[in-house]
Design goal:
heterodimer; A: 420 residues; alpha/beta; Aconitase, domain 3; 2 domains; 30% helix; globular; B: 7-stranded mixed beta sheet
């Protein structure tokens, strides 16, 4: 029986010709990632177990992005611990305030992950890099510590669900709407323990930013990883970023999938996930009257340049509604700079938005836009769990940057056509 | 190895944001994390829980963030075992890696009610509900995972 794309990457890194779903393997890692929340726990475990040297100082990335710039004294202490560990171990890819961005936007941008590579990260959205044709998955801090110490991790080889994409997205519809549509269809545990493999002629019509967004939220369907085939778009994206050899893997023609879904991209509408689960989706025409207090445009899901471009195109010449706070967070310094050069930041500020330095910030209720009791936000982030952005009785509605911008202008969840 | 205690029961999709809200992730101190365990879903949990108690939930327990702070907070609060119909995969790994016993058992997850007294034999996977006089059988761990648990967690198993 043939292997899926994910299985082929795992097999190659385990030194095996063939693996099967359910098999337990040990595999060599190309990259181990942590952030300012998960790394301190990993460093404590690493030291407690008596390790004193990381396996390869060039294959570890530490990104200070969650509570930075340090939101309080305790967060400052956590970053200090990471900074000292990075210094002591001479970690090559250590990114602190000034160089950092949101980890899952930063690593692909800097060419730290390439097609065919195997990456674990102590952050659930590590699955983002599947957009590049890599196998990458989120783990906890102890797995990160073991990965830093040995360069290996154990995996249970996943089975897969195939999503065959055809057609082309309509104007103002993006990768965010595709993945929200899929999560609405299969549920938050619809891909539990499984790979989500995206294939078909529609893939070529998705930009790299769309693919990164779709793979990013595989975890929101319970998926172990999300993965795209490598095509011209991928090669073009990696061209000036990745300066090492990489390998392209393809699923075998006779690979078996637990389920196959056919999705015509042209039929997907702008989609909003209602509280308190990403699976509670409604298309924009079914939303009804939902007044809002805050809008957040940013995060590892939707803080990339094309996301800011889409939002700015909606905000152009318009004003944020009275009583709404609109927060725009470019995901990396490079995106921030480009958005400035393109005049997007001016558009945001003239519209009445604020623009923040890169941070995960409000996405996980850390800082930079916490909700009070009873408040509602439309966010381009990835989770709308109870208390995710602040008070346990606040609400988060997940949407695309275009819908978030339109909602900020209207003061309630709105379609782009209602404000243009 | 056995566990015996009173059950704290929850529903589907208990996510790691309600197990330990991100506003408390500015520390890695186990006791501080445990002091806020389940706060956004069950404010009184930290006052009710006694060492050795059992947590039971339905589908997809521990979904969401990869924060290991979640199983750490549960373990440090005194919970001896989590039983669920299914677990989210990162939580499942994390629990094993830090030595928090967890069992997948859809029947137990359905039938056990809040406040029931339950006895668990980890070697056989037998769960006895003393309050309702019922017995359920959980999937035992594969050998590979048993080895990690026996060593007292993943890193200890690597040192050998």
């Amino acid at each position: 029986m043939g292997m899926t794309m994910s299985q082929k990457i795992l097999a190659a890194h385990a030194g095996l010709d063939h693996v099967e779903a359910g098999q337990l393997i040990k595999a060599k890692l190309d990259m181990v990632l942590g952030n300012d929340v998960t790394t301190p726990v990993a460093v404590n475990e690493f030291r407690k177990a008596g390790f004193d040297k990381v396996f390869d100082k060039e294959k570890i990335s530490l990104v200070m992005d969650h509570f930075t710039p340090n939101k309080d004294i305790k967060a400052a202490g956590q970053c200090k611990l990471c900074r000292e560990f990075a210094g002591e171990q001479d970690i090559l890819h250590y990114y602190d305030v000034g160089q950092m961005g949101i980890e899952h936007a930063l690593l692909p941008e800097k060419g730290i992950i390439a097609a065919g590579e195997l990456c674990i990260g102590a952050d659930s959205h590590t699955c983002t890099y599947g957009a590049l044709g890599a196998f990458s998955t989120g783990v906890g801090s102890t797995d990160m510590a073991a990965g830093m110490a040995t360069g290996e991790a154990w995996f249970k080889v996943p089975s897969a669900i195939q999503f065959r994409l055809t057609g082309k997205l309509s104007p103002w519809v993006s990768g965010k709407d595709v993945i929200l549509h899929i999560i609405g269809m299969i549920g938050v545990d619809g891909a539990l323990y499984k790979s989500m493999e995206f294939t078909g002629p529609g893939v070529k019509n998705l930009t790299m930013d769309d693919r990164l967004c779709i793979a990013n939220m595989a975890i929101e369907a319970g998926g172990k990883n999300g993965i795209f085939p490598v095509d011209e778009v991928t090669v073009e994206y990696m061209k000036d970023r990745v300066n090492r050899e990489y390998k392209v893997y393809e699923a075998d023609p006779d690979a078996e999938y637990d389920e196959v879904y056919d999705i015509d991209l042209s039929t997907i509408k702008s989609t909003v996930a209602f509280p308190h689960l990403p699976e509670n989706t409604r298309t924009i025409d079914e939303v009804g009257d939902v007044p809002i207090d805050q809008v957040v445009i940013g995060s590892c899901t939707n803080g990339r340049l094309s996301d800011l471009e889409a939002a700015a195109a909606v905000f152009q010449g318009k004003k944020v509604a009275k009583g709404v706070r609109a927060i725009v967070i470019p995901a990396t310094q490079d995106i921030y700079m480009k958005a400035m050069e393109m005049g997007l930041l001016r558009t945001f500020i003239e519209a009445g938005c604020i623009v923040s330095t890169p941070t995960c910030g409000p996405c996980l209720g850390g800082h930079m836009g916490i909700l009070a009791e009873g408040e509602r936000a439309v966010a381009t982030t990835n989770r709308n769990f109870v208390g995710r952005m602040g008070h346990p009785n606040s609400e988060v509605y997940l949407a695309s940057p275009a819908i978030a911008a339109a909602s900020a202008i209207a003061g309630k969840i709105s379609d782009v056509k209602d404000v243009l | 190895m056995n566990a015996h205690g009173k059950v704290h029961k929850y529903g589907d999709n208990v996510d790691t944001d309600v197990i330990i809200p991100a506003r408390y992730l500015n520390t890695a101190d186990h006791k501080e994390l445990a002091a806020h365990c389940m706060e956004d879903i069950d404010k009184d949990f930290v006052n009710k829980v006694k060492p050795g108690d059992i947590m039971v939930a339905r589908e997809n327990f521990g979904c969401g963030s990869s924060r290991e702070h979640a199983p750490i907070a549960i373990k440090e609060s005194g919970i001896a075992c989590v039983i669920a119909a299914t677990f989210a995969r990162i939580f499942y790994r994390n629990a094993i890696n830090i030595g928090l016993p967890i069992l997948e058992c859809p029947e137990a997850a359905e039938k056990i009610q809040n406040g029931d007294e339950v006895d668990i034999d980890f070697d056989t996977g037998i769960i006895r509900n003393i309050t309702r006089n019922e017995t359920y059988k959980a999937q035992p761990f594969p050998e590979f995972i048993k080895d990690i648990m026996k060593s007292g967690g993943l890193l200890n198993s690597l040192k050998k």
